[in-house]
Design a protein that fits this description.
Elements: H1 2-22, H2 39-42, E1 44-52, E2 60-69, E3 75-83, E4 88-98, E5 106-112, E6 115-124, E7 130-134, E8 141-145, H3 152-164, E9 172-174
Length: 178
């Protein structure tokens, strides 16, 4: 009987965890994603200019993301970076889907099977050269550029936007591209 209760409790906890992990429709308070998003214009290579560090990108420089279309209309993403501690390049391939309307920058990304996380484009210039991307909480933030650098005026605008939303921009990791 005791084992059945432990198994039932474990299954309930696992189910609740999966539900929370698979739910990426939440956004940090006050955050709005861009409208009139064109996924085809977003495809291609992006350089990571800055990020709030987290376990999957720890010790990485020269980080990039390459977006392309899958046959099913979803987006394939290949993230690459150089681990300067292990002295080697690492890569991870994921799948991006819309979490809302297809013309909204509210997306979700998965690198681990059925588990998705929020990928929310909160600022994007009209030429699709610079982007500010937020995760589903204030722990995840990226500044992206089509080039290895970002003009100071764009960077300052994006930093102000992030700070106004509650992000601690002093904790950003500024990525080296060499």
């Amino acid at each position: 009987m005791k084992n059945k209760i432990l198994v039932l409790g474990s299954l309930t906890l696992l189910s609740a965890s999966l539900l929370v992990m698979n739910s990426c429709n939440s956004l940090p308070k006050g955050l709005k994603t861009i409208q009139d998003f064109d996924k085809n214009k977003y495809l291609g290579s992006w350089y990571e200019i800055a990020r709030l560090d987290f376990v999957f990108e720890k010790n990485l420089n020269n980080t990039t993301a390459e977006y392309s279309l899958n046959e099913d209309g979803s987006i394939k993403v290949v993230n690459r970076g150089y681990n300067f501690i292990k002295n080697k390049y690492v890569a991870s391939t994921g799948k991006v889907k819309f979490a809302g309307d297809s013309n909204e920058g509210k997306l979700k990304v998965s690198f681990f099977g059925p588990f998705y996380s929020g990928y929310n484009i909160i600022a994007l210039d009209s030429d699709y050269k610079y982007a500010l991307v937020a995760g589903e909480s204030l722990k995840y933030l990226w500044l992206l550029s089509r080039e290895k650098t970002m003009p100071n005026n764009i960077k300052e605008t994006y930093l102000k936007t992030a700070k106004d939303l509650g992000y601690n921009t002093s904790e950003l990791i500024w990525v080296k591209h060499n």
